[in-house]
Amino acid sequence: MNEKPITRHKKLIAWVEEWIRICQPDNVHWCDGSQEEYDHLVKEEIACGVAKKLNEKKRPDCILYRSDPSDVARVENRTYIASEKQEDAGPTNNWIDPKALKKTMLDLYKGSMKGRTFYVIPFSMGPIDSPIAKIGIEITDSRYVVLNMQIMTRVGTKVLEALGEDGEFVPCMHSVGKPLARGESDHGLWPCAPLDKKYISHFPETREIWSYGSGYGGNALLGKKCLALRIASVQARDEGWLAEHMLILKLTSPEGKVKYITGAFPSACGKTNLAMLIPTIPGWQVETIGDDIAWMKFGKDGRLYAINPEAGFFGVATGTSEESNPNAMRACDRETIFTNVGLTKDNDIWWEGMGMDAPGKLIDWKGNEWEASTATAPAAHPNSRFTARAKNCPVIAPEWEDPKGVPISAFLFGGRRPSAIPLVYQSFDWIHGVFMASCIGSEITAAALDLKIGTVRRDPMAMIPFCGYHMGDYFKHWIKLGTKADANKLPKIFSVNWFRKTREGKWLWPGYGENSRVLKWVFERCDDEGSAVKTPIGYMPAPNAIDTTGLNVSADDMKQLLSIDREGWAREIEMIREHYARFGNRLPEELSDQLIALEARLKKV
What we know:
The protein has 3 domains: about 10-50 and about 75-240, Phosphoenolpyruvate Carboxykinase, domain 1; about 245-310 and about 400-605, Alpha-Beta Complex (Phosphoenolpyruvate Carboxykinase, domain 3), CATH 3.90.228.20; about 310-390, Phosphoenolpyruvate Carboxykinase, domain 2, CATH 2.170.8.10. The protein is about 30% helix and about 20% strand. Strands 11, 12, 13, 14, 15, 16, 24, 25 and 28 form a 9-stranded mixed β-sheet that branches. The longest helix has 17 residues, at about 225-240.
């Protein structure tokens, strides 16, 4: 155990000592990020019954966790942006006065780590030597968090060396909120606090994160959504860069030309699948830089460069299969932490949508016996997860850890829209592209969220749950960055929609690997090649511009995929107007003007 600080950073040491005084742990450990440390923690988790060792031949160095049924996903209604002024949090965030919130949480933190070990995790979001990277320090009493952070970030002494004696760091405080009496144990059960005692709190002005009561996912792995998006979005606004909920992929043509493309999509829109796509067009190749988050800064050449600040994938297991994402399946076949999936008799894992029938009786995610023929609930939780190392992905790009980042040529924005929105179209310019992205949404069904069929849930830039400040100001930041930059060097902006349906409910586009055909047109448009026609909504592919060689999609279906539904767009404009009204006088005038101009163009059609 590294009980004494392995740093000379006085501010960091004082911060840690203060939390030790408050939380009253039995032990203190400064994480060094070594393989020996990781292996030791895994053995401890298995020995105490919280984790299960999986079949070494089938899943080498893999373990399984089952969380408490109350602790299975992000808890957005317990997630707070505690800015000093309520109006700065905006209408899309939960706000609480920061002084009152800290008082409430400090009372909870007092003695919260009795009977437990207090871990100090120095971590870097991004390659440690990257000028785009940021350093965080997470305190936690959860071995699960330490193990996951070792996969998802760069952890250890090298981070402290980069921090030096006075470097800046984002302080991240976490406790599962379940102290143990002397001699008490967790009895092999997942530790957490009741739902009404869970708090995931962000303090934008002081760049702090305080989390209490949950041990799961983005609630507890504070480098992920908390730092990489909610706090980093504020830093990016103040420092002149972008922290975005985006995949980054590398697209290579048959001639060997390379372009890097990012994409922002709300949940259930195939983001990870696109990041690890296997193209169906001969000669084209997709490689992965990242599947979830992109941090972007302008380089000396005026282009926008992106890094993936993460070192792993925290992917949804349920629905991932050899058909939907074979590369993700390969990434998690070793050195992986599985959470809330089914366990087979031979200590392997299974989940719904894996692409094969359940192999007989299982133990489900709640620890109960489960059999498909008699089951009334799934074996794996719908939000079950795998935490896998990015380096184990077979299509990880060689430059994925390049400290200077990769130059971005295009942004893709999209949602799940069965009607109205075409397969793909391109913005006229940067501000028009920001307008397109600010309106992105997904249509949902009554079965999904108890809403009327056809309801559009707006999620601008896929950032509604993750923007750390007022969304109107966020739009202004995008506009400001673009107007200050060289327009010829900015990424082109596109809208995509893989989910268009006929009136009878049939998918018009096959998706998955066939999305490479859309990527090809995007690639061409980045060089002002690839034929396009100017329409009221943007530049759309000209007839036959999308390569359909060998594609089983009729000419009529392609025409519908690339058509403008005037009635649908009339409804869309009214929904956008209602969406914009939320932001009041902080909505940029440029976006209001774009909406007016769109409506005028559509009336001329």
